[in-house]
Specification:
This protein is mainly beta and 479 residues long. The protein has 3 helices and 24 strands.
């Protein structure tokens, strides 16, 4: 495996087109096939839609640096791109999990192409569960079987992606619901646990990193919950006047370098703030020790027109320091959507003088109270300037993490990793822009950043990384 000193080397020079407002350069691309299995053999049986239950896919939904050359990556609620039952939004009993990935980032031996090569390896798969019983749907009238996983046993009740696994008598933030749609992940400073945010609740949970057991719940204010729950997202939206929009809950998650605070961000505005037609989504600051929260407004770009506004969504937030963050704001266009990517930008924000808005509701009332933001990286522009066609840029670039530093031309550079959610579709057999088909793997795009472009950057220091590397042997996750 790659040692830290392998990252320290001298490189003569290379050319890539400059990014938007910072000197950020694409230096490597790595892939893991979307047609192979992960290391959870016990979940390999076909799901309700016929897709194997341990297909290695979608894990770019969230990406966290775990020290040295190791990352934690999470799939979302599972393979629901294959239509089979609209009564549950085509969701399945896919058991939620996180993947442990190691990477080798090395200087390229070829004078052509990018200056580095990135080789990722899957070394471990960890299933997520609760010690206490969870609420599963019985499938009555929905055309699906009971939602309780066959692997459930005493003190091991697994979270799954199926949309009907909720208690209809409780609001959506009920922590006893089995349905879970992971979207953001970060590692604790002691290296012993992971924090994961979700869209269904929205929830923020803490899990033991070795066992995958939930060990803590961070309860969000009831304003984020919906009270009329439904396994069909569109019906759930129409049945509520407040709370998160279905499938657009707590999308991004950051942890401050001091390890004391989580920063979550909603994919889209709350229903009472305008929903998907609103311009202001919410950032939630969570004190890990006490669970106390604060809220801030984040203004989305208008990618429509002044007369007919249209807003992108937020996929991730990443700490630069305890007060500054990067935010991934994007459209849903590109590979996987049979379209061309247009808008995928990373902004830098600062909460130092931001106004707290937890007691403010409504789009018009949030106007003028948003955090300041500046463009940090135009991802589409940078990738296309490096020869990647817009239709080949993944539609869902969702994971964001800083990685190990490199040295280029005698200068230390920080690295930024961006990962994609391929929706568990490893190969696109044909679409309008790829009539002959195209591979759709799990991808990592690596960018080099000069220290002068992120002054004040503080890397998170994670202890005990070597204890969680995994053996790389099949079945090691089922402990």
């Amino acid at each position: 495996m790659l040692k830290r000193n392998l990252f320290l080397f001298l490189l003569a020079s290379f050319f890539v087109a400059p990014a938007a407002n910072a000197d950020v350069k694409l230096i490597a691309i790595g892939t893991l096939s979307g047609n192979i299995s992960d290391r959870s053999q016990k979940t390999s049986a076909p799901l309700e839609n016929g897709v194997q239950g341990n297909l290695l896919g979608g894990f770019g939904s969230g990406l966290a640096y775990a020290g040295r050359n190791t990352f934690i990556a999470i799939p979302d609620r599972g393979p629901n791109a294959k239509a089979y039952n609209s009564a549950v939004d085509d969701t399945t009993s896919y058991i939620n999990r996180f993947q442990t990935i190691t990477v080798e980032l090395e200087p390229s031996r070829s004078p052509l192409g990018l200056p580095f090569t990135l080789t990722p390896y899957l070394v471990d798969t960890t299933l997520l569960s609760s010690n206490k019983p969870l609420y599963y749907g019985i499938g009555l009238g929905l055309g699906v079987p009971n939602g309780s996983p066959a692997l459930n046993a005493n003190n091991s009740y697994y979270f799954t992606g199926r949309s009907d696994n909720f208690d209809p008598t409780q609001i959506s933030t009920n922590p006893n619901n089995a349905r879970f749609d992971p979207e953001g992940v970060r590692v604790s400073n002691d290296g012993k646990s992971v924090f994961i945010s979700d869209e269904y609740g929205p929830y923020v949970y803490q899990f033991d990193r070795k066992t995958g057991k939930r060990i803590k719940v961070f309860t969000l204010n009831s304003k984020f919950a919906v009270s009329n729950l439904n396994p069909v997202g569109a019906i759930e939206i129409s049945g509520n006047t407040s709370g998160r929009v279905a499938n657009k809950g707590m999308e991004g998650l950051a942890i401050t370098p001091n390890g004391k605070t989580l920063i979550g961000i909603l994919q889209s505005p709350l229903i009472q703030d305008g929903g998907t037609n609103g311009a202001y989504t919410r950032i939630v600051k969570i004190d890990i020790a006490t669970g106390a929260t604060q809220e801030y407004a984040y203004k989305l770009d208008n990618i429509g027109t002044p007369a007919k506004p249209k807003y992108p969504t937020v996929s991730e937030i990443l700490s630069i320091s305890d007060r500054e963050f990067l935010v991934d704001e994007r459209d849903g266009k590109g590979l996987g959507d049979a379209s061309q990517a247009v808008f995928k930008k990373i902004y830098r924000i600062d909460l130092t003088n931001a106004q707290e808005v937890s007691n403010i509701t409504g789009e018009s009332n949030l106007a003028g109270k948003e955090v300041s933001k500046t463009l940090f990286l135009d991802v589409v522009a940078t990738l296309t300037q490096n020869g990647i066609r817009p239709e080949d840029i993944p539609a869902k670039l969702e994971g964001l993490a800083f990685g190990p530093d490199v040295v280029i031309n005698h200068t230390i550079k920080h690295t930024l990793f961006i990962s994609n959610d391929n929706d568990f579709v490893g190969t696109i057999t044909s679409d309008a822009l790829h009539p002959a088909g195209i591979d759709n793997p799990n991808k990592f795009f690596v960018f080099a950043i000069d220290a002068t472009d992120i002054p004040g950057f503080v890397p998170q220091k994670i202890e005990g990384e070597h204890e969680y590397r995994g053996s790389g042997k099949e079945g090691e996750e089922d402990k």
